[in-house]
Amino acid sequence: MQVTLSNAPITAIVADALLVLQFDADLRPASASYDAIRASNAQWLADVETSGEAGGKPFETTVLHRPQGFQAKRLILLGAGKAAKFDSATLRRLVGAAVRKAKSNGAANLALALDPALATAENIAAAAEGVHIGNHEVDAHKSKKDERTELASFAIVAAGDHAAAVHQGNVLGEAQNFTRFLANEPGNILTPPVLVAHARAMVAASEGLEIDVLDKDRMTQLGMGSLLGVAQGSPHPPSLIVIRYTPATPSKDHLGLVGKAVTFDTGGVSIKPADGMEKMKYDMAGGAAVLGAMQAIAKLKPAVAVTAFIPTVENAIGGNAQRPGDIVTSLSGKTIEVLNTDAEGRLILVDAIEYAKRQGVTHMVDVATLTGAVVVALGHIHVGLFSNEDGFRQQVQSSAARQGEKMWHMPLDDEYREYLKSAYADIGNIGGRWGGAITAAYFLKEWVGDTPWVHLDIAGTGWIDDNKPYMPKGPSGVCVRTFVDLALSWPA
Ligand code: BES
Ligand code: MN
Ligand code: ZN
Prior knowledge:
By secondary structure, the chain is an alpha/beta fold. It folds into two domains: about 5-145 and about 150-160, Leucine Aminopeptidase, subunit E, domain 1, CATH 3.40.220.10; about 170-490, Zn peptidases (Aminopeptidase), CATH 3.40.630.10. It has helices at about 30-50, 90-105, 120-135, 165-185, 190-205, 215-220, 225-230, 285-300, 345-360, 370-380, 390-400, 435-450, 480-490, and strands at about 5, 15-25, 60-65, 75-80, 110-115, 155, 210-215, 240-245, 255-260, 260-265, 305-315, 325-330, 335, 365-370, 385, 405-410, 425-430, 455, 465, 475. Strands 7, 8, 9, 10, 11, 14, 15, 16 and 18 form a nine-stranded mixed β-sheet that branches. Strands 1-6-5-2-4-3 form a six-stranded mixed β-sheet, sandwiched between helices. Helix 2 (about 90-105) runs parallel beside helix 3 and helix 4 (about 165-185) runs antiparallel to helix 8. The chain is elongated and about 80 Å long. The relative contact order is 0.12. The mean pLDDT is about 95. The structure holds ligand BES, manganese (II) ion and zinc ion. Manganese (II) ion (MN) binds next to loops.
């Protein structure tokens, strides 16, 4: 389903439900759509306002069937909160919530009225995304789907030419849902070779991407001992997926996006506790975010070259699994003492990072469900952000802020290096009890060197544990929007 645009008068919109934003009564801004409701349904509006049924509180919905003077079957006042706090991120969620509600109330054809003051490109793209995000379901494997009405159409009603913004919203919405679909696939179904197949299918369906998959033999020849050590306990062979986007005019910069894709993380011999282990199917959410971003980048064609590097393995247990105390040699030549086989994400990432450097990337962002410690530090609200260079960090943070993805800058001082000391190899893969998200990031930094780099730890934000009004529980698709924004806003 694609979101469409209409510039017909809202009274002429034919739909099962027409959504109109209702801001908090306190300092409610002037609104032509709101006035149009008042013009023909004054008594109803006065009644729901004075009774307190409709006060403009966020996510509140108040329905009027068969409104006077409107073609739409229903009018829905969609509570939008305080006007001063309203932004595109709020709108994205409001629209997602309205879609979810409509699907449970039998409304298949929806429209959203946006007054001229709100009809910016940023808001329109966010509203279109919100439709896709809210429409995404997580019951792909249920033979009897949850009771609902399928959304058939969604029109954004706004004056002016907003085709580009709606297109961007459709592309970004679909990309996030692709990421969420992949991250929700269970470990028995989505193995590394199956992720490779999804990547190949995405590239085949896109225009302007090239794919190169390094298999186990090629990685052995190259010397990716760190990545291969993690993979050796699984019957499913590992890969390093490389996807290239090249702009029409060659760019001086080259952005590398590196995404952790552990299709299931048992912890290996340093096995995880049983409680909650089923969630470790989303330990490939970083790689999935990079795949989603590449799908959108192929369609939106930024001016900068972007290459994705997605190391994919299963961290399994078995007779051939690596042991605590094993020493592996990474692609860069640095040796690592594997003190804990559950700190596997960093082990696969460093070989991908070294490979990305050899491919000539000038800037690098990696994204990974890397540590439980980042969840302790930041909960499920902020992505943990680490960097070795302030200019590039600010570029990534600006994109995240524009896209309503919260990211918190964490420290990475050289004093943390000491935590990673090993008696028998160049470095150990864990840093002890304290500052676990930082020592994991520091480990990566040892391979990154001087390339401007940002590390995003999404262990807490890649998955939501409870249903939200705008999104069912499950993978969030976080970072897709930030990556696409980063590429599209790249300085010339
Ligand atoms: N995939 C996990 C991190 C994780 C934890 C992701 C919770 C999502 C939710 C990672 O591979 C891991 O196991 N990290 C260990 C590192 C430790 C052994 C130093 C952790 O955080 O416990
Ligand atoms: Mn682990
Ligand atoms: Zn992991």
